[in-house]
Design a protein that fits this description.
Blueprint: E1 3-5, H1 16-30, H2 44-53, E2 60-65, E3 80-83, E4 92-100, E5 107-123, E6 138-144, E7 161-163, E8 178-180, E9 189-196, E10 199-207, E11 216-220, E12 226-232, E13 236-240
Parallel strand pairs: 9-13
Antiparallel strand pairs: 1-2, 2-5, 3-4, 4-5, 5-6, 7-8, 9-10, 10-11, 11-12, 12-13
């Protein structure tokens, strides 16, 4: 069983030795059958640590602490220090490290669940590949952002985007579901702008490949010559000399 932790809880500062002892007593409690019944204030230092470590996460944060493996037989320790293991990000399901800094010299890991809730764009209806949802096609809903990495949170993020996969009504829209809409497609008429030292010359051409803004694109001139330039808005292609 997990235990919900209120982020609004505040506790007065206590000497390090008292905090260490409280952490150890909390560990004993978290590994005991009584942990399933109610949450003990002995775990307050762990709550404070997690609260500090998750400061800055977007949205509303909910922290749940799991139980230590009841098979652990931890020796008494006067100096217990919580830490975030290397490579661990405290969001979603994660493990919090606990190390004994005195002669007992043990390390244990405590499962935690960090949920982050906030507004995200949700599809108002079903969409297919290559469609471009507009602001009118989506709505903002509070979702669990910790389970929706890369969720779009602003309608402006839909601009010039097309879907690379279908989405169902009510599905959270993620960045990975979209790609940039090409400025140019093969066959589009473009204006070639030749830029050199002290001169600019323009002529027409035809795009031979798709391109988004700032991307290289191949263009064929009226004479049949193929050039490479940089796609710009307004169906312009810059060619540098």
């Amino acid at each position: 069983m997990t235990h919900s932790i209120s982020l609004s809880a505040r506790h007065p500062r206590r000497p390090l030795a008292v905090l260490a002892a409280a952490i150890f007593m909390g560990l004993l409690w978290l590994a005991s059958p009584a942990a399933d019944a109610a949450e003990s204030d002995a775990a307050a230092p762990l709550r404070l640590f997690l609260e500090k470590e998750t400061t800055g996460l977007p949205g509303r944060v909910e922290i749940s602490v799991g139980n230590l493996d009841p098979r652990l037989n931890l020796a008494p320790c006067a100096r217990v220090e919580p830490f975030v293991p290397p490579g661990v990000r405290l969001i979603g399901r994660a493990m919090l490290g606990l190390r004994c800094l005195d002669a007992a010299n043990w390390v244990a890991y405590l499962p935690v669940d960090i949920k982050v809730w906030g507004p995200a764009l949700v599809a108002g209806s079903a969409f297919s590949v290559n469609q471009s949802p507009s602001e009118a096609d989506v709505r903002l809903e509070e979702v669990e952002l910790s389970r929706e990495p890369g969720a779009l949170t602003q309608p402006a993020q839909l601009a010039d985007k097309i879907l690379v996969r279908g989405v169902a009504p009510g599905q959270v829209l993620r960045q990975e579901y979209f790609r940039q809409r090409p400025l140019l497609n093969p066959g589009d008429l473009v204006t070639l702008v030749y830029r050199g030292s002290g001169f600019t010359v323009s002529t027409e051409g035809r795009a031979l490949s798709p391109a988004v803004a700032g991307q290289a694109v191949r263009v064929q001139t009226p004479s049949g010559k193929t050039l490479s330039g940089t796609a710009q808005s307004g169906r312009l292609v810059d060619v540098q000399f």
